[in-house]
Sequence to fold (272 residues):
Amino acid sequence: MNEVVSYFEFDRSGVCGFSQMKGGWKEVVEKITSGTRIKYDEPDLNDTIISWQQEEKDLALILSRKLGVFVNSGESKYRGNLKARIDNDKKTLIRGKSLSSNLKVSGAVSDIKIKALFEKRIVEMSVTLKAPQDKKLRGQLNWVKRQLEVCKKKDEKTFNKLQNEILIEIVLKNTNKTERISIDNMDNIYEEIKDREIKEFKILYIKYFGKSFANCRKFIETLESMLLDYYSCIIQYLYNWTQPAPKIVEKEKEKKVKVDKEKIIVSKQEKV
Fold:
């Protein structure tokens, strides 16, 4: 793994070392902010998409080096079809004013989703945790709360730095409705959703970039720092709920029958 990453980082490989978005990035950010229409075939849009995809690969390589395992980037459905990925990203940016990336780390709680929202000039990073299905609502909330408390104990300094930018998104069963709450508000959400069931949690790290969103070099520096903080302080300590091993029902029934028989015998003796 170290040899692979070292090769990618070698200057002549042409793979790593992406440190600045192309000039079209700034132009597209400013056009979206001002409400100017973006054309599908304009060079600035192409620059923006290529820059985003190159930075996605660079983020994967940086994380690979830090973890010592290979981190995959992008969606599997676009592997081997770069044109389709570029076309999709262009349409997504024109219509939705956003771009998304996906990082897959073997052993992590889930893929890391990264989304750049151009109008708001913010970046969202998120991972998903399957909620325990053997617990009631309050137990589910406490389960994820305890995980975040562990994150804080492991790296309190970084956690305190990120805390105001961390949100928990609660995905409810049988509905498209979700609830986003801050860590401080976790104890208050119970009353609002007490009649619902939780399907999963998303732990989001949301950062407002402001002017640096349009800065071709500063954007990359902030994004890479954001990912490393998020992974080192939050992601690496999270875990998924797993279904407990099934119990032998017959044995449990036999035990109950035996207890019931003993109660009947005792009851008869007391009467005598």
Summary: Residues 2-247 form one domain. DSSP finds nine helices and seven strands in the chain. The chain has one domain: 2-247. The mean pLDDT is 88.
